[in-house]
Amino acid sequence: MYQIVADEDDFLVITKSANVHFHSQDGSAGVMARLEQDLTIKLYSVHRLDSLTSGLLLFAKSSRAAAEFTELFTQHKVQKYYVALAKGKPKKKQGWVVGDMAKSRRSMYKLLRTTKNPALTQFFSQSVAEGLRLYLLKPLSGKTHQLRVALASIGVPILGDKLYGGAESDRGYLHAFSLSFSFRAKDYRYLNYPSQGEEFTAADTIKQLQIWSEPEKLGWPKRK
After folding, report:
1. pTM more than 0.85
2. Domain extents for the chain?
3. Residue 160: CB partners within 8 Å, gap ≥ 6?
4. Quick one: fold of 2-217?
5. What distance in Å separates the CA atoms of residue 185 and residue 136, rounded to the nearest whole number?
């Protein structure tokens, strides 16, 4: 369900497995409840991952630390990078996906043409197999299902993401890859390679992920 990456005085960083709920539901403990049970401590959520998404997840250990992290997230001072796999040819191979988001049918969201309070996503992509591309995603906002909608909107729903029309697979191929921030005058940076899924652990995918291992240093495409 999870692995602990860092256990600091004020916060905890874990990697969440794919297909694990964040909150408890249907009578089974979510990852946060399981952590609290296993560690016998009170935790405070400051961001979330969808059930299908694996990777880095941060929890505060006090209400004060939670308030500080919430402010950092609000001010976009916590930098998050995700990786995803998708089949097919995208409308563009790198750039931005920008637009307001609205609820759609069956718990889905959709991207609108308006930009009053838009979801902002920068991305790169690279072919890793015949008909399969790896995407490095940098969200500059924190909307529900933002990255899943962003890739679906350019014609390449995430592999295994059945809700948005992704091809059938052994998992939903979205992973929280990198997390970095400055907290109480100290810099922290975490990187986690996906360990679940045949396509994520394929040699060519791992090779490209290693090339992207310092995502903050890449020449990210400017917004037009």
Report:
1. yes
2. 2-217
3. 52, 166, 167, 168, 169, 170, 171, 172, 173, 197
4. Pseudouridine synthase (3.30.2350)
5. 28
Contact 190, 178 (CB under 8 A): yes
Residue 24 reports pLDDT greater than 90? no
| Residue 26: strand pairing partners | none
Q: Report which residue type is found at 188.
A: Y
Note the pLDDT tens digit of each residue in 144-177: 999 999 999 999 999 999 999 999 999 999 999 9
26-62 confidence digits (pLDDT tens): 777 889 999 999 999 999 999 999 999 999 999 999 9
Residues carrying an active site annotation: 50
Beta-carbon contacts of 96 under 8 Å, excluding residues fewer than 6 positions away, are 120, 121, 122, 123, 221, 223, 224
Beta-carbon count within 10 A of 124 CB: 19
Measured distance CA(68)–CA(70) in Å, rounded: 5
Three-class SS state of 141: coil
